[in-house]
Amino acid sequence: MSGFPTGVSVVTAMDGTGNPHGMTCTSLTSVTVTPPVLLVCLNVRSGTLGAALSSGGFAVNLLHSRGQYAAELFSSPASDRFCRTVWQPSKVVRAPWLVADAFAVAECVIEETMPTGDHVVLLGKVVNVDQSTDVPLLYGLKQFSAWMSESVTYR
Q1: How far apart are CA 55 and CA 57, in angstroms?
Q2: How does DSSP classify residue 120?
Q3: With bands split at pLDDT 50, 70 and 90, how would you rate the model's confidence at 145?
Q4: Rounded to 10 degrees, what is the CA torsion of 93, 98, 101, 106?
Q5: What digits encode the pLDDT tens for the residues 106-124?
Q6: Under a CB-based contact definition with an 8 Å cutoff, are residues 40 and 21 in contact?
Q7: Does the pLDDT at position 2 exceed 90?
Q8: What is the pTM of this model?
Q9: What DSSP letter does each residue of 88-116 carry, written as one string?
Q10: Which of left, alpha, beta for 44 (phi over 0: left; psi -120 to 50: alpha)?
Q11: What would you measure as the largest C-alpha separation in the chain, in angstroms?
Q12: pLDDT tens-digit profile of 38-88?
């Protein structure tokens, strides 16, 4: 799958003691429009998975083309990730919103989980979206790139 380019996101959640967790995620898809539901796959050993399950929600931060540092940071073993980037609690589920690196954040409440192999599939009902117009960050063939487009418009 490394040859298939995809958008880059950081999935975040707060644990029961108020500590932020987050990880870079390229296994993200829209499942339904009505109601809006997103699917993410998180490793069973991930602190982000534990935080999402304990809080019942998570945020999907869609990174803009200048967000490569955040993508690399949240895929690293660094324990102080949230000290190295600008974030604030999202409006509804209170998960970390990477305001300097994400052009959109989708807040989700967990609707269903499904363990499979070394990951857990989370289906999250989208309860709030904040977005601005920007160029998405892509990843494929082991490299980052920006969406190549004359203009980006959203409905």
Answers
A1: 6
A2: E
A3: confident
A4: 0
A5: 999 999 999 999 999 999 9
A6: no
A7: no
A8: 0.92
A9: EE-SSS--EE-TTTEEEEEEEEEEEEEEE
A10: alpha
A11: 45
A12: 999 999 999 999 999 999 999 999 999 999 999 999 999 999 999 999 999
- Which residue spans within the chain are E strands per DSSP? 6-7, 9-14, 20-25, 28-32, 37-43, 57-63, 88-89, 96-97, 102-116, 119-131, 137-140, 143-146
**Hey, how many other C-beta atoms are within 10 angstroms of the C-beta on 109?**
15
70: CB partners within 8 A, 6+ apart: 10, 24, 61, 63, 85, 98, 100, 101, 102
Tokens representing 87? 């974030």
* Residue 77 confidence (pLDDT): 93
Query: Edge-to-edge strand order for the sheet containing 102-116?
Result: 20-25, 9-14, 57-63, 102-116, 119-131, 37-43, 28-32
Kindly state the tokens that stand for 153: 């418009």
Structure tokens at 101: 């690196």
Q: What does the block give as tokens for 76? A: 């690293």
Q: Does residue 151 register a pLDDT over 80? A: no
Cα gap 81→54, rounded to integer Å: 20
Please state, in angstroms and as integers, the Cα–Cα distance from residue 20 to each residue in 15, 51, 74, 134, following that order.
Answer: 6, 8, 12, 25
